[in-house]
Amino acid sequence: MSQRLYLGVDIGTYETKGVLVKQDGKIISTASRKHKMIVPQKGWAEHRPNEDWWGDFVHVCKKLITESNCNPEDIKAVATSAIGPCMLPVDNHGKALMNGVLYGVDTRASKEIKYLNNKIGKENIFNFCGNALTSQSVGPKILWLKKNFPEIFSKTFKILNSTSFIVYRLTGKYVIDHLTAVNFTPLYDIKNQCWSNELSNEIIDVNLLPEILWSNEIAGEITEQASKETGLKLGTPVTTGTIDAAAEALSVGVNNSGDMMMMYGSTMFFYVLTDSKIFDDRLWYAPWLFPNENCLSAGLATSGTLTHWFRDNFAKELQEESAFVDLAKEAEKSEIGSKGLIFLPYFSGERTPIHDTHAKGTFFGLNLTHERKDLYRSIFEGIAYGTRHVFETYAEIGNTPKEVFSVGGGIKNKIWSKTTSDITGANQIIRQITIGASYGDAFLAAVAIGDSNRENIHEWNPIEFEIKSEPNEIYEKGYKIFRRLYEKTKDIMKDMDY
Q1: Residue 481: how many CA atoms within 13 Å on its side-chain side?
Q2: SS3 for 311?
Q3: What does pTM read for this prediction?
Q4: Tens digits of per-residue pLDDT, 45-97?
């Protein structure tokens, strides 16, 4: 029996997830595959593009088709998203020339950021690009590649993002969405929404960057080679795609000005839709996924990543399958405020709002009564303090979120999600389906070919419950210390660099 299905696949920092969805939003099959974030040295973060990006996509796609027993002809459109913004050079055959350099968690280009700021001028960059140069910016990472690996750069035909690489392998087309392209500062002209060498000719010729499209545009169709590898039908439409967090936002119904998506993942990430273009160097402006729409985003550098770090180093005796659940149960037995511990979650520097690549992670206030449960609880409190700092930054520029829609694996962790509401003062709306970006991708695929419209997400994914904020004095005191602790130690943190 013929049906209309939509395939969505998202490549995350530690796992790839895929989903097949019917026209009414019902999920008929899910699949996933884990991979690792590679940290070759301090400040670096990488993925293997062939194994972790394309290999995962192929594995998940085949599994979805096989386990659902669907006819590939019933899959009417494909959309993908991935962690980003990343930097991957490919040759004239689309072959990856090195590992993919990840988003703001990778801080290798700090010298190039300083150099470009000094040469071009911070104000000039901000006025032209709408964003400051930070560890999130791809432009400095391209310059880092050019300076440090000229033999690779000389072979480079295109610089791609993670999503761009997948779309290329599917369609043979080199494309990127506007939301991702904005992060290629200082190579994106925010006024004309196009690539530009106006600020700098020494990074890269913009002809070596992908074509910029909107996320709901069809980038191309499944090629013969991609069909053989994935099992998808030749000629199936493929959308331009986007960054994972934006697909997450779509999946929970972020459609109107003032709506916020708060994503609990390897990092905390935030999108707030705005009526107009708003520029503030503490946050990131971007065109939204669709023409004539705007957003203001923010992101912590490390969040869920810290739970992996803690498990791997301090809970080795726990079974891997249940370690996070067991640790969360322990943390619930610790008191609010973690017996006076204050945790700075700056293990990979920090992105918004402080944009400090020199920032360091800190457990402050330790004494001999502290146990593992207190340290683990303090991690969630520290992430929540960092989240409150983001919320306050939005408020300071007159864009306090009206509705907060939360998504991501972290919302299953009750102590993390409840602590976040209590510390930020924000109620969080949780929808029934919390798969996240891959579900948003499937929805985007349906919208792109006209089988759905954006308002249908409320039928696809109704509201399940709300997490209510219950502020308390311990967290108020803790937040003030959190802010002071960074300010008092940031110079020392910088001196500790080696």
Answers
A1: 18
A2: helix
A3: 0.87
A4: 999 999 999 999 999 999 999 999 999 999 999 999 999 899 999 999 999 99
